[in-house]
Amino acid sequence: LPYDIKAGVAPIFSPAAFEKHINFHRAQIDSLNKLVKGTPYEGLPLIKTIREANTSEEDHDILQLATECYNHNLFWRCICPKGTAPPYVLEGRIVKDFGS
Fold this sequence. Notes:
This protein is mainly alpha-helical. It has four helices and no strands. Helix 1 runs antiparallel to helix 3 and helix 2 (46-53) packs antiparallel against helix 3 (60-78). The radius of gyration is 17 Å and the shape is flat.
């Protein structure tokens, strides 16, 4: 992450809550890795695993964990420490569309 996880992401998460969330995500990844071991999904990128498992009812557990991992990956990219401005283009669009 491009910021210090020990500092947390105030006011969204305290350092303790942030660490707990990271540990939960790590457990999801570990569980998914165990579940896909020895299957055609082993070694695939996460998004490809989601696409492939989405077509198979028997791979529901793999799909569920893969989507949870994907959502966490997106989450980590979306949050930032207080006072961090969004990228210039995004900030301009927010101001244009919402006025602030």
